[in-house]
Write a structure and sequence with these properties.
Length: 407
């Protein structure tokens, strides 16, 4: 089978969509299938083309057996709604223009969060008379409203009509959460065409590591209890909550035992750095995104991982992919997300929940995990015991069966 996958994020980018798509496609190649990924020049989230690449209409490379076709797009940083829409639409147009060069796919699949990639996939599938598969990683454009980037408007309602059209045209929809499936069913999408394949973890990469001594020294983390946030610094994540917690702990007796590490980039990073400086937070370390091959060394610095999203109903339906990476690394989680992901944390016993945007509870639980050695060791052991349930190789195989049935 020849699978054509349309996505605007792919390695060497290191965000969650890029990681999931690459790891699935790699496994499908290993299973004997031909996989072509159509994407753009890597630039996320800074909006700068990565070294070694150019923003051309058409260029190709091979990556772990995957045929990668990169097309031109309007490149901008992950900030500013209008510019980002131009980015998405330009990729959609370029993908459709270049698609005749992709010979004889058996099906065409694309992935959200934004669905202009899915629009491209549908148009290409229509032109090539091949099945269209929609992988649903986010309810978009609903998430735009949830983070306050746009209010309800005729433009949003038009996007929602396009969204429902794509759901209707897909032969199957592969959702990453049960909550998304329930949402689509309520909106009139047939349950028979929706399957769930959750996010997971590549256990060949994410496994327990001793703290990297060189990085510990570089960032002044010796003998510190390190809480870290690793991922995109965006509007959805409300990372001011972690800064507030850092400020409160900074002022408490014994608070100097803690350090807070932020690794990644995003639309809010500069503001967060300015806020931390204005608050005088010398217990906070900001680190730019690092290549995928190095990220595990930075995960190793953490004693606990803070996962956090804005307090809004939509985000009770998501499962942050970093949760599974924490399990693989054996790093207990302080989980500031309610809903389906919180249910996993509780069921697997891999962390402690706190109310989103509640910095007091975050502080309280940081002290608890530092001081309660028995609890900490239990959570760490549960992480390692639970991780194999979410092994990416198994999940990729499950998704491949669905694709085979759709082709």
């Amino acid at each position: 089978m020849h699978i054509l996958f349309i996505t605007d994020n792919f390695p060497p980018e290191v965000n969650a969509p890029a990681g999931r798509t690459f790891e699935h496609c790699r496994e499908w190649v290993r299973a004997g299938h031909k996989v072509t990924v159509m994407t753009c020049a890597p630039n996320f989230p800074q909006g700068r083309v990565y070294k070694g690449y150019k923003n051309r209409l058409y260029q190709t490379e091979k990556m772990d057996g995957i045929d990668v076709v990169r097309v031109w797009s309007y490149i901008t940083a992950n900030e500013g709604f209008v510019k980002r829409i131009l980015d998405y639409v330009s990729f959609m147009v370029s993908a459709v223009i270049v698609s005749p060069l992709i010979k004889k796919p058996d099906l065409v699949i694309s992935t959200s969060p934004q669905f202009f990639s899915a629009c491209a996939a549908y148009l290409i599938s229509f032109m090539k008379k091949r099945p269209f598969v929609f992988e649903l990683r986010d309810i978009w454009p609903e998430s735009i409203k949830a983070v306050g980037a746009m209010k309800d408007s005729p433009a949003i309602r038009l996007l929602e009509k396009i969204e429902l059209f794509l759901y209707k045209k897909a032969v199957i929809i592969i959702s990453v959460t049960e909550s998304f499936k329930r949402t689509l069913i309520k909106r009139g999408v047939s349950a028979d065409k929706i399957s769930v394949v959750t996010n997971g973890v590549d256990l060949d990469r994410f496994q327990p590591w001793a703290k990297d001594a060189e990085l510990v020294k570089k960032y002044g983390l010796e003998n510190k209890f390190v809480a870290g946030y690793i991922g995109t610094h965006g509007m959805a994540h409300c990372l001011e909550t972690i800064l507030d917690a850092a400020d409160k702990i900074h002022k408490q007796d014994g608070g100097d035992q803690f350090r807070f590490v932020f690794l990644g980039n995003g639309a809010r990073k500069n503001e967060l750095m300015e806020q931390a400086e204005s608050m005088g937070l010398d217990n906070v370390v900001f680190i730019d995104s690092v290549p995928k091959a190095e990220v595990v060394k930075y995960w190793s610095l953490l004693d606990v991982s803070v996962i956090h999203l804005r307090k809004t109903k939509l985000f009770t339906t998501v499962i942050p992919s970093k949760l599974f990476e924490c399990m693989g690394m054996g790093i207990p989680v302080l989980h500031g997300v309610m809903g389906e992901s919180a249910d996993i944390v509780t069921k697997e016993g891999v962390g402690v929940l706190f109310e989103p945007e509640n910095s007091d509870k975050l502080c309280e639980n940081l002290w608890k995990l530092k001081d309660d050695t028995k609890l900490y060791k239990r959570l760490k052991a549960n992480c390692l015991d639970s991780a194999p349930k979410y092994e990416r190789r198994v999940l990729a195989g499950r998704m491949l069966k669905l694709l085979t049935g759709a082709s």
